[in-house]
Amino acid sequence: MDRPQTWIFLFLPVLGLNLDPAVSEIHSLTYIYTAFSKPVNLPGIHDFTAMGLLDDRMIDYYDSDVQKKVPKEDWMKTRMDEDYWKKGTQSRQSKHQWFKVNMEILMKRMRQNESDVHILQWMHGCKGKENPDGSLRFVQGKDMYNYDGQDFLSFDDANAVWVAPVDAAVETKRKWDDVRVLKEYTKGYLENECIEWLTKFITYEKEQLRKAKPPKVHLFTKNSRVQTNVILTCLATGFYPKDIELYIKRDGRTLTRQDGVQTFGVRPNEDDTYQRRDYVEILKSDKSKYTCHVIHRASLVDIEAEWDRRLPDIEGNGSSIIWVVGGIVAVVVLLAVVLGVLFKKGIIGGKDGKGSSRSLKCSSCSSDHSKEVKIPLDDANGEKVHLNPDTDSKKSDSSSDSGISRSERNVPAARERTALSDVGTSQRKNEARSRTRSDELGPNTLDEKFR
Question: Pfam family example for this protein (predicted)?
Fold first, then answer.
């Protein structure tokens, strides 16, 4: 009887693949693919996902729902052209089909029924150590498969042989070991092509770091229309590039839209930097600890600022009241000065004591036509082709896992593993020679399926 499977196996292989965090001058480039035998109908879980990681940080992503390879770092958006992403999407779609075929092969080999959920994963990549001149020296390469949370097959780069840790993989190991060009290609990709792409990506990332500007973080409140509430705002400003993560937390728990968090999104400043402002309405009497967590990867900023519990002026009009009262006092003082001057000059308060203005007569007029002028006292106010790399990296930066090679167009999915026994040695060699270079392996044109 088959043991029950569950979607949690999705994460177990990744945890066991020794994805060590980058330390000092060690850098890594890794590609991970995950496929389910059938839909699990859970939020965020897709039939097929693929991602590229540079030093364990995601730089691109693809899933079977969106069906498009997209950048996850700003420098990937700016340095890799449209053709790179177009061909990368085609390559990921090809890999998706390869996974479907091989999932069926493994289920039949292990006599598993279709009612259970099974998971197949593939990971490949390399690590390089930075030399004094900035170049990278190959340290380690990985190309391995995982099925239902257990290691299934891996490539021993030092000895150029496939390793089968479980009996079910022995048959595939024997067939793949017999294909010399497959082993040569895999070893060549891990030690050379992967390192070349790792070097290129690290260079792009460093260029961005030199231009990056860190955010300044401010956490403050203003009055709400509800007298018992205040609006807590987190503002990150002055950063570049614009990719940023911002989270308002209450006692360590990240608040969401369901908690009332609103955002203005990322907006440009006048100095070519950016700002982001998020806010949430809370009770003035709330004694919880509120913090703002800001992550700006480009400038290596990861900061969490705490609200100092300062409240805005009472009624929210304290400063306005001060300005209004001050204005009134100034007007009264000015009016008193003007009246005093007018009084001393005899313009007002004359002996006749008749009011707020006196009559002035025109000296040039005759006595019979004298004119009186009234003076007012007020004024107005105001990716390793499974075997075949996808594109030629020598031609442009757009060549990478991103493209579909000539040999891939002849075979539905590069490195699609059809029965090796059905493919002649000369055909395999010809197809291997026709491959072009890529940043990741792809389903290979030698058609080496698991059977």
Answer: MHC_I
Q: What is the distance between the alpha carbons of residues 387 and 187, in angstroms, rounded to a whole number? A: 11
Q: What is the DSSP-derived secondary structure letter of residue 278? A: E
Where is mean pLDDT largest: 108-117, 327-336, 440-449? 108-117
Q: Is the peptide bond before 241 cis (omega within 30 degrees of 0)?
A: yes
In tens, the pLDDT along 261-300 reads: 999 999 999 888 999 999 999 999 999 999 999 999 889 8
Residue range 153-177: mean pLDDT, rounded: 94
Class of CATH domain 216-299: mainly beta
What are the start-end ranges of the H helices in 130-211?
170-177, 180-188, 194-211
> Which residues share a beta bridge with 6?
none
DSSP assignment, residue 326?
H
d(CA 188, CA 182): 10
Residues in the chain: 451
Q: What are phi and psi of 425, to 5 degrees?
A: -60, -45
Q: Is the pTM above the cut of 0.90? A: no
Tell me the pLDDT tens digit for each residue of 330-356.
666 667 666 666 566 666 555 444 444
The dihedrals phi and psi of 355, each to the nearest 5 degrees, come to 120, -165
Report which of residues 324 and 291 the model is more confident about: 291
Facing residues of 26 across strands? Answer: 129
pLDDT of residue 386: 57
- CA dist 137 and 157 (Å) reads 15
3-class secondary structure, 105? helix
What count of Cα atoms within 13 Å lies in the side-chain half-sphere of residue 202? 22
Q: Which sequence spans correspond to the domains of the chain?
A: 7-210, 216-299, 318-369
Q: Do 380 and 331 form a contact (C-beta atoms < 8 A)?
A: no
Residue the block writes with tokens 């945890």: 15
What are the distances in angstroms from CA 366 to CA 179, 359, 361, 369, 373?
Answer: 127, 16, 10, 5, 16
- CA dist 121 and 147 (Å) reads 6
Q: What is 7-210's CATH number, 3.90.1150.10, 3.30.500.10, 3.40.30.10, 3.80.10.10?
A: 3.30.500.10
Instruction: Return the pLDDT at 51.
Output: 96
